[in-house]
Each structure stands twice: as structure tokens, then as C-alpha cells.
Amino acid sequence: EIKRLSYNHEIFKHGMGGRLLFAPVDWNSGSKSVLDSATANGLWLRDLVCAIPGTHTLTGTDLNPAHFPSSTSSNFSYHVQDINKPWPSTWTSSFDLVHQRLVLSASPQPEAVVKAMADLVKPGGWIEFMEPKDLLADDAGPMAKMNATLFRDLFKGLGTYYGLPEQFADWLRESGFEEVQERVFECRLGAKQENE
Q1: pTM attached to this predicted model
Q2: Which among 112, 21, 16, 116 has a CA at the least distance from the CA of 61?
Q3: Residue 178 pLDDT > 90, yes or no?
């Protein structure tokens, strides 16, 4: 599972031109508090800390603690958290950046999840979600098409939604966010991915 997630991390990073996020956080203006929801083994957090200046407080949460790193530096912490359950009340308005990727499709209540996570962001802070959009490239091969069908059927069977809900940006605006943007990146898999 960690190998698969590590491949995903590299594929997404490649698709985003080597970037880990687009929120314009000013990392030079003092220590920031970062939350990575659905962190698994904390790879995104560990990659982020190597790419930004300064020392920051980095928090990873996941439903399954089995993949949490066994040892970390003092500015990292990991906690068990189900995105469909209430967050600790002490975390309200406490993060400069909240990040999550590839989790909302597994939630039967994505609007409630987005709005609950929005409450964790400090005034002036940023929230960034990375979710699949149910799109295929015009030149997608047969395996990519089969994979898309599999995911659609899987999430439909789970009673959830595969692909970014159209109301996603509206939910953030309703939570008081400004400068809400959506960007679509193509992440090719298999033979169509030019980077072996």
C-alpha cells in the first residue's frame, strides 16, 4: 500500500510540474502550522519540509495509524482521525495550511467533510484539496478506460462519488474562503506516462 501511495505521490508531483501545493503560503514569515489529512506514512509532509525554508509544526492524520513513521523529529506529530468524525475542538482555527488528497471520494458526506476541515484553518490561512476529476484524455488507452470504469463502479457501490463534485468550490466559499481556485492537472499512468 505504501509503495502504491509513493507512486501516486510521484505521479501527482510530476503532473503538477514538480510542485507539492499551490497555496501561496509565505514560509519566510515565521513558523507555520500544517495539517496533512490522510497522511498515510507522512510522505507529503516529509517532502514538503525539504522544499520550504524555516521550521514549522507538521501534523499528519489518518484513519489507519499502521503506516505512521516510527520515529520523527520533534516538529512532526501523527494522530488517528476519521474525516467523517468531528475534529478535536482544540484544532479549530489553528492551521496556516490544511492539505488533503484523494480522500473525499471515499466519504458519503463530502460537503460536511470540506466544511469541517475549513473550520481548522486560521483566518488568513489556506486549504488545499487534491481530488480526481472524472476525465479521460482523448488518447486514453483501453486500460485507462477500464480503470476509470472500475473506479466509477467501485465508488458507486460504496455509495460515494468518484470525481470532484461540482459544488466543491461553492462549499469553500460558503465557509468564508476567498480566492477559491480549481486547477486540473493531467496525471498519466502506464505507457502514456513519459517519465518511466
Answers
A1: 0.91
A2: 116
A3: yes
